[in-house]
């Protein structure tokens, strides 16, 4: 059974390394991670406070992912590197749900269990709503064709 449903490892051509694909993901990842770092430097989170920087990049990244996927759904034949570069690379490097989960024990350690629970649930719900909003917005602008 293949790990990636888009790849059949029984086909020799699909076992080959795709240097362009790897480069697109890597370059996009660097751009996304650097942007996330810049946001983190601009927004300082006080100890025991809501991690606004992490929440903002995750919600914004989720919104942009919804927009990207809805737009790509309307393009008959998008370039094969658009989704890996923007979706996996840039937005994957930009969002940081693992860091969001580190914020929960930090808030618990600061004696803020209610805020930790709100942050845990709020991050997941906000990200899902942002993705849906991005998708809906593209569909609304394009007249439901996304």
Summarize it.
This protein is 73% helix and 0% strand.
Quaternary organisation:
single chain
Estimate the strand proportion: under 5%
Terminal CA distance reads 32 Å
The residue-averaged pLDDT reads: 89
Secondary-structure class: mainly alpha
Please trace the helix and strand order, writing H or E for each element: HHHHHH
Work out the radius of gyration.
18 Å
Largest sheet: none
Sum up the overall morphology in one term. Answer: globular
Structure description:
- 73% of the residues lie in helices and 0% in strands.
- It has helices spanning 12-15, 19-42, 52-74, 82-94, 97-109, 113-141.
- It is globular, with a radius of gyration of 18 Å.
- The two termini are 32 Å apart.
- The relative contact order is 0.16.
Which helices and strands appear, and what pairs or packs with what?
Layout: H1 12-15, H2 19-42, H3 52-74, H4 82-94, H5 97-109, H6 113-141
Helix pairs in contact: 2-4, 3-4, 3-6, 5-6
Question: What are the defining features of this structure?
Answer:
146 residues, mainly alpha, 6 helices, globular
